[in-house]
Specification:
The chain is an alpha/beta fold and about 450 residues long. It has two domains: about 250 residues, TIM Barrel; about 190 residues, TIM Barrel, CATH 3.20.20.70. It contains 16 helices and 17 strands. It has an eight-stranded parallel beta sheet. Strands 9-10-13-14-15-16-17 form a seven-stranded mixed beta sheet. It has a two-stranded antiparallel sheet with strand order 11-12. Helix 5 links the parallel strand 5 and strand 6. The radius of gyration is 25 Å and the shape is elongated. The two termini are about 20 Å apart. Bound molecules: iron/sulfur cluster. Iron/sulfur cluster binds next to loops.
């Protein structure tokens, strides 16, 4: 777990700071970002970061303190931000609810600090309250997406979330998610998990069931539990891992996260046997990230049979094993069959996620070879007709590949226990037409959200 936003430097922790920090680290919190809100707080945050290996700091002026930001204090923040454990400029932003600084000062300070972040190449930690339109307009106008950042304690609506996500910002959620009738949780459940961070905002915003107590990082688990409930069937471990990796990527906390050959999501174990593919889909996750649900899938080299088997671990924890689609698994057909044979000898359910081009790749009908080894095949048809497929999926086999994918699905239906075709809910895809195609084939259809992977 990574607490992406806490204020452990402030006086509420003066009596027991050490215990609070130690109890967090001994109960599964791996790292804490301690967020500065003015010059003194930024200095104290760095002091904490110097004392604890797994505490990082930010430096900046909160909108409440914006009236005190001068050219000189901005220069001080700039100096502090060169410290090796300062990972962001923040917290900065607009608070038109409490208005503890005049709005003109808030706007000026927000813009000055975004420019500083861009100069330093650091992400920003943004606080917004009752000023969503103004804050998003400033983020756009200043091209803040060049450094990115997080909108902490997100309380905007879905439309505002979309604007922030399109600029590449992360959204961070805290104890407010656990409050009854939380509007925030209605928005959170619609956000791609790969864009979510978790935080406590300690000592504020304690989650239920600790609502009446001072908040502290050890209570982060309640936020993760609530997100797990919202994103069911993802597990607590999934949400913990994904949000931790998101924080590492944003704040550049770990330079290398090892790539995975076998990786769990929900109650499935996925196998990543190749990154090669015969398509170059415009929407492919590989175009913009190495990560799926918090796992690094960018292989340094393709695994051997022994490497795949060694990566399996304890299989009885899983309902199924899935040859995943971060690359086209049938390109490595021999390995796929050998591994599937091993899995069937252990009585595992085996699913193959494929682009349906195995017969084109091997220039023969490979489906009879899958019989008895693959229980479920999930074929990415993606769209409702051939020219859209050519335009969006860009197969190396050129035109008419769509028809060949459908022919592959028909073969699978003949030989395998279960065949599913999947399509994407992109605006250009006619889902009713997809239904009609699936019905005609007598094959189950599954609609995938095009911006959700894994
Ligand atoms: S078929 Fe899958 S792995 Fe291949 S390019 Fe398309 S989305 Fe990516």
């Amino acid at each position: 777990m990574i607490d992406s936003h806490a204020h452990l430097d402030i006086k509420q922790f003066d009596q027991d700071r050490l215990q609070v920090i130690e109890s967090a680290f001994s109960s599964g919190v791996e790292k804490i970002i301690n967020v500065g809100y003015n010059l003194e707080s930024s200095q104290r945050s760095i002091q904490l970061a110097d004392e604890y290996k797994e505490i990082y700091a930010t430096a900046g002026f909160h909108p409440h303190d914006a009236k005190d930001l001068t050219e000189q204090s901005l220069g001080e923040i700039q100096k502090l931000a060169t410290h090796k454990k300062v990972v962001a400029i923040g917290e900065i932003g607009l608070d038109f609810y409490r208005n503890l600084s005049p709005r003109t000062d808030q706007i000026k300070a927000f813009k000055m600090q975004i420019h500083l972040a861009k100069e330093l190449g650091l992400p920003i930690v943004v606080h917004v309250r009752d000023a969503w339109e103004e804050a998003l307009a400033i983020l756009k106008e200043t091209e803040a997406e060049k450094v990115g950042g997080v909108l902490h304690s997100f309380t905007g609506n879905l439309e505002q979330a979309d604007i922030a996500l399109n600029m590449g910002f992360y959204l961070s959620f805290n104890g407010m998610l656990t409050y009854p009738d939380s509007k925030t949780s209605k928005v959170a459940r619609k956000i791609p998990m790969d864009s979510i961070l978790v935080e406590t905002d300690s000592p504020y915003l304690s989650p239920i069931p600790k609502k009446d107590k001072r908040n502290q990082p050890v209570y982060l688990k309640f936020v993760i539990e609530e997100l797990t409930r919202l994103f069911s069937p993802l597990s607590f471990q999934d949400v913990e891992r994904i949000t931790a990796v998101n924080a590492c990527l944003l704040f550049n906390l770990i330079t290398t996260i090892p790539c995975q050959v076998a990786y769990p999501i929900r109650d499935s174990l996925y196998l990543n046997i190749t990154n090669q593919c015969t398509n170059a889909c415009v929407f492919c996750v590989r175009n913009y990230t190495d990560f799926v649900k918090g796992h690094n899938l960018r292989l340094n080299q393709e695994p051997t049979f022994n490497e795949v088997i060694n990566a399996l671990g304890q299989l009885d924890k899983y309902r199924e094993v899935v040859f995943c689609g971060y690359g086209e698994p049938t390109i490595r057909l021999d390995l796929l069959l050998e591994v599937a044979r091993h899995l069937k000898s252990k009585n595992m359910q085996v699913r193959l996620n494929t682009n349906g081009q195995g017969n084109l790749i091997h220039q023969r009908n490979i489906v009879p070879e899958l019989a008895g080894l693959i229980d479920v095949v999930s074929i990415s048809l993606n769209v409702d007709e051939s020219s859209k497929y050519d335009r969006l999926c860009k197969s190396s086999f050129g035109k008419n590949t769509y028809d060949k994918v459908i022919a592959f699905a028909k073969e699978c239906k003949k030989y395998l226990p279960k065949t599913v075709i999947t399509v994407l809910d992109m605006p250009e895809v006619d889902l009713q037409e997809c239904e009609r195609i699936a019905q005609k084939l007598g094959i189950e259809l599954r609609v995938r959200h095009y911006n959700v992977v894994g």
